[in-house]
Specification:
Blueprint (H helix, E strand, L loop, with lengths): L4 H20 L3 H14 L9 H11 L9 H18 L10 H14 L5 E6 L6 H9 L4 E8 L2 H13 L4 E5 L11 E7 L4 E2 L2 H4 L11 E2 H11 L1 E12 L8 H11 E8 L12 E8 L11 E4 L6 H18 L1
Parallel strand pairs: 1-2, 1-4, 2-3, 4-7, 8-10
Antiparallel strand pairs: 5-6, 7-9, 8-9
Helix pairs in contact: 1-2, 1-3, 1-4, 2-7, 4-6, 5-6
């Protein structure tokens, strides 16, 4: 029985990662980053390995030629390997934005940037890069200059290797996204906002959305930081918790948003996407205010159906298309 391209790539990634995990005495995710480097360079770069181990690895690598696969086949296979590694080494900050959300984000970004032949894109909480590369792979008819920022050394290394394997020229910055960024304002910001408290109380003092007592909400600060790095008239697409505007800090956030942005839309994602209904999220679409920038006649408000429900999704897409005709 023949196996799919995704299975073929995943099997090589998995089997070589297991070999390197044992030989280098490291975690599966660290080994995955090493095997990704080998595949990208077309050579085994770990000098400390024995000749026998190198021969075993080469035999595995010879099973695939990445240029023969699509970028999406490579991304999905790599994603499966990362998910396996995350199950073995679960950490709260090691989470991946699901493919289905990435596809919805891609559709929305494509609609809002339909008149642009090229644009710049920033993900300030890039993680493993799955959301960003999903978008870049889906919007392949435009020239996109893209940037990703993350404080986690391992996650951003996985993101950088995944981008290389998919031939996506992304510039990555390994730093605290809420510190000063050496990135010029972009046309589009996208982010799966990290929800929680920002532990650097001193660093949060430069933000309008800082808390007056205790730690500040990191997701609020990410919104403000993202706006600093967005051009006038630029768009921001955030994955937000459904309770974003229900906290005690919400009034300050609402005042800040009303001053600096136009809310273009809020799309509530189906609860079936999330293991815990209390962790359900929505997509918040903002446009930064500027000269001659006008808000929509009506904010796009919708509750998305389950993506596998074809008829309901077609009706929802028709509703969104109608909104664009009337508002953009």
């Amino acid at each position: 029985m023949s196996i799919s391209p995704m299975e073929t790539i995943f099997n090589v990634l998995n089997e070589t990662s297991l070999i390197l995990k044992d030989e280098l005495n490291c975690t599966y995710l660290e080994a995955l980053s090493e095997t990704g480097e080998n595949l990208f360079h077309g050579d085994i770069i770990q000098d400390e390995l024995s000749e026998l181990t190198k021969k075993r690895l080469k035999k595995q690598y010879e099973r695939i030629n990445l240029s023969a696969f699509s970028k999406e086949e490579v991304r999905k296979s790599y994603q499966l390997a990362i998910l396996k590694g995350m199950r073995d080494n679960v950490q709260s900050n090691h989470q991946m934005t699901p493919d289905s959300i990435g596809l919805v984000m891609s559709y929305l970004i494509k609609k809002f940037t339909d008149k642009a032949e090229a644009f710049s894109l920033l993900d300030p909480a890039v993680g493993t890069g799955n959301l960003l590369t999903t978008i870049l792979n889906q919007i392949d008819d435009k020239e996109i200059t893209s940037y990703g920022v993350d404080i986690d050394d391992l996650l951003i290394k996985l993101a950088y290797i995944g981008a290389n394997l998919q031939s996506q020229p992304i510039q990555f910055f390994n730093q605290d996204s809420l510190e000063h960024l050496f990135i010029d304002p972009v046309d589009v910001v996208v982010g799966d906002l990290p929800v929680g408290f920002y532990p650097n109380d001193l660093g949060s003092q430069k933000y309008i959305l800082k808390s007056e007592k205790g730690h500040s909400y990191a997701h609020h600060l990410f919104i403000e930081q993202s706006l600093k790095h967005t051009k006038s008239g630029g768009y921001l697409f955030f994955l937000i918790p459904n309770g974003l505007f229900e906290s005690e800090e919400a009034p300050k956030l609402q005042r800040f948003l009303s001053e600096h942005v136009y809310i273009q839309g809020v799309l509530q994602l189906p609860e079936s996407m999330f293991k815990n209904p209390n962790a359900a999220k929505s997509i918040l679409i903002l446009q930064k205010k500027g000269d001659e920038i006008k808000g929509p006649k009506q904010v796009l408000m919708a509750k998305l159906p389950t993506l596998s429900h074809q008829q309901a999704m077609e009706a929802m897409i028709a509703k969104i298309e109608k909104w664009f005709d009337e508002n953009k």
